[in-house]
Write a structure and sequence with these properties.
The chain is of the alpha/beta class. 43% of the residues lie in helices and 24% in strands. It is built from 13 helices and 13 strands. A hairpin with a 2-residue loop joins strand 7 (148-154) and strand 8 (157-165). The longest helix is centred in the C-terminal third of the chain and has 17 residues, at 275-291. The structure holds adenosine-5'-diphosphate (ADP) and magnesium ion. This is Probable copper-exporting P-type ATPase V.
């Protein structure tokens, strides 16, 4: 690509809110065969809300929420923030946590008013020898609607499933359809559970889902795809996505996402509109054809 063609190309993209790091990124965009999208914060807005609280018999929902919010107060995860917001909106008295530890990709462990509180996915509870089966119907019901079920255990006993739901970005389905029109394969990559992931995938028109991926495994899943000969564009927003963005042939960050993701990417979609992926790839094809 000539420097002039690249300048014109990246200039046009910038007008559309697509920041391209340079000529190499444009060349890579032209070669892409497969687009991998993170779910939370990329295909969805990334601001979930609590939609349901299912407790086991004998546990009061408000008391449970107060403990859960106390445990999540130190959390920077959108699910944790949603639980804290929900408790505040209900005017619950949230006690201070005596200890807090985030378990990336799984949840949090905390101590609140002498109680050990665990909040997270089934795997987190399993690691502590707690069986989530008694609330599995509730969890499945949340997931079947595309929500994320979060389990809560108090002092080693399953106490509740909190349902959280995130909104799919309004342009997501259109962007996925347009990527297909360009002849690209589209996949979802997420740390969330398979049922939830597949419901959201269906909503946006994706039929290849890689779910239950731990944060440290996202880059490895991208490497697996590249090993099959695919030229991979990874689209993500989170700290968890940074290694996968850096390891992809082309990293695309949601501009409203974390600075870490933006720094690890080649292209930034400033306003977060997913149709920017389509514009960037279409533009790269035009730009490179022009200069040939
Ligand atoms: P994603 O790839 O969707 O951003 P993460 O890797 O951050 O997901 O988390 C994977 C799963 O771990 C979540 O779907 C949730 O079940 C659980 N989890 C992670 N952090 C928290 C938290 N702070 N509170 C409750 N659950 C959590
Ligand atoms: Mg995300």
């Amino acid at each position: 690509a000539t420097p002039t063609a690249i300048m014109v190309g990246t200039g046009k993209a910038a007008e559309l809110g697509i920041l391209i790091s340079g000529g190499d990124a444009l060349e890579q965009a032209r070669r892409v065969t497969t687009v991998v999208l993170d779910k939370t914060g990329t295909l969805t807005r990334g601001r979930p809300d609590v939609t349901a609280v299912h407790t086991v018999a004998g546990v009061d929902a408000d008391r449970l929420l107060a403990y859960a919010a106390a445990a999540e107060t130190g959390s920077e995860h959108p699910l944790g923030e949603a639980i804290v917001r929900h408790a505040r909106a209900r005017d619950l008295v949230v006690p201070p946590a005596d200890s807090f530890a985030a378990v990336p990709g799984h949840g949090v462990e905390a101590e609140v008013a002498g109680l050990r509180v665990l909040i997270g996915n089934r795997e987190l509870l399993r690691r502590h020898g707690i069986d989530a089966a008694p609330l599995s119907d509730a969890a499945t019901a949340v997931a079947a609607r595309g929500g994320t079920p979060v389990h809560v255990a108090l002092d080693g006993r399953l106490a509740a499933v909190i349902g959280l739901a995130d909104t799919v970005r309004p342009e997501a389905a259109e962007a996925v359809a347009q990527l297909r029109t360009l002849g690209l394969e589209v996949r979802m990559l997420t740390g969330d559970n398979r049922i939830t992931a597949e419901v959201i995938a269906r909503e946006v028109g994706i039929d290849h889902v890689i779910a239950d991926v731990r944060p440290e495994e996202k880059a490895a899943r991208v490497a697996d795809l590249r090993a099959t000969g695919a030229v991979v564009a990874m689209v993500g927003d989170g700290i968890n996505d940074a290694p996968a963005l850096a390891g992809a042939d082309l990293g695309i960050a949601i501009g409203t996402g974390t600075d870490v993701a933006i720094a690890a990417s080649d292209i930034t979609l400033v306003g977060g509109d997913l149709r920017g992926i389509v514009s960037a790839i279409a533009l790269s094809r035009r730009t490179v054809t022009t200069i040939k």
